[in-house]
Amino acid sequence: MTDFTPKLAFVCGSLRDGSINRKLEVALMHRVASHGGTAEAVSLSDYDMPIYHGDLETPATVPALIDTLAGYDGIVIVTPEYNGSLPPVLKNAVDWTSTVSTRWIKDQTFGIASCTPGPMSGIMCLRELAFLLRRLGGDVVPTQVGVGNAANAFDGDGRLSAQPSSDFADQMLSSVIGMARRKHAAPDSDGGEPDGGEEE
Ligand SMILES: Cc1cc2nc3c(=O)[nH]c(=O)nc-3n(C[C@H](O)[C@H](O)[C@H](O)COP(=O)(O)O)c2cc1C
Q: What DSSP string describes 44-88?
């Protein structure tokens, strides 16, 4: 058994006060220790960037965000779904950083999650997010966490209580930490996910 403790970054695609995705992010972060890792939130509000266009100079926040995120063993992205797609704050951060370096994505291990007030579970944005991260060389674990009906999904202490989302949360975190460990043990491997399948 290795004494390596994977360090996970949590990134939320909503910056608003009272965000249900931030609530899900915090609930997921609280579970990380039980899977043998540590968790830190990296807020995109600390890396403010204008909407990308090619005439702008790269803001200093872009390499700073790359450096920060490249320092983790895995990244969990928790994001709202906007019109079946990704919110601009998240896509903008990916687009800006990709003009400098994708080293925070390439070969990195990702878990993805989404929370919505409606009966669906953010499945459309999760598919887009998985595609985007894989397109840039990231490894997205098969189990993704979609939480619908947010008003009934958490208990009074903010813990994720709804099923099957709660089980998927543990499966996702376990997979992210397991893949991070395998990559640490064999840095040239892809950390292969033995479970297979994809669930929301
Ligand atoms: C522009 C916009 C588009 C939205 N589109 C969707 C959608 O496609 N699917 C969905 O489930 N919710 C959609 N919503 C509702 C969001 O899920 C809801 O506002 C949620 O609370 C946002 O996440 P947050 O609380 O973390 O900020 C949309 C909200 C906005 C503002």
A: GGGS--PPP-TTSPPPTHHHHHHHHHHTSSEEEEE---BTTB--H
